[in-house]
Request: fold
Amino acid sequence: MEAAGFIRRMFALIYDSLVVLAAILSSSLLLVWINGGQAEPGTFLSFLQFIIIISLGPIFYSYFWTKNNGQTIGMQVWKIRLVSLSGRKLTLEEAIKRCFFSTLLIPGHFWILFNKNKLSLSDILSQTRIVKVENIK
Reply:
């Protein structure tokens, strides 16, 4: 399988980020509506909103990577897939590890430009890689 390049991966990331942002905004709107249109710091609803903001991205990516054959919505559009280096189906642990390293090492995505195998630092640390999807006819 051929490794996916930097541009394709970044466009898929942007696409997925817009989906995650829409989900965060929708859930925040629902919380504001429940709270009667008032934002009150220090309440349970503000804490719930914080939890939604920090967890929705990892939940989104982990779900799609483990349950949708290694592809998020953006990855489907850009015809790329996350695979385990071991060749088996991705586990939840691998998906969470990859989310953690991808968030922690944001500049590590640029490592793709210098690595001969087109691996980012999060690819290397999570023992995964992103490959192009073959067209099946």
